[in-house]
Amino acid sequence: MNEQTKAIIKSTAPVLKNHGEAITTAMYKILFAKHPEAQILFKDASKDQHKKLAAMVYAYAANIDNLGSLQKGIDKVAKIHVEVKVLPEHYPWVGEALLGAIKEVLGDAATPEVMDAWEEAYGFLAKVFIAREEEMYAGN
């Protein structure tokens, strides 16, 4: 991920802090409308799952230049993903829904530059999770 992307993502952190729950609520609606089969992955999720995800997205944005500080959280979420059988093919679904929700909630503030940065940042984080989850599936 290049430095310009990191700077754009970090600059969106305050917006995510203020609008994160609206974004993640919209994200789940988009995800389940486009991929109803994804609902099984969230059958045991808590009622405040959208709040937890909003906090995680905010933490990612705020710490984009220090991802090592997020390792404990990544490991915790990856463990849950393995337990519910999240697979690499699910990540594009979530990415599409998340980007759609950002655009929906932020409207004109979701400029092409911001959306391109979030697409790149999401793709990077998805690869991190997929790699960690593959290790866990393999028993490491």
From TrEMBL:
InterPro entries: Globin, Globin-like_sf, Globin/Proto. It holds the Pfam family Globin. Its EC number is 1.14.12.17. This is Flavohemoprotein (Hemoglobin-like protein) (Flavohemoglobin) (Nitric oxide dioxygenase) (EC). Residues 1-134 form the Globin domain. In the C-terminal section; belongs to the flavoprotein pyridine nucleotide cytochrome reductase family. Belongs to the globin family. It is an enzyme of class 1 (oxidoreductase).
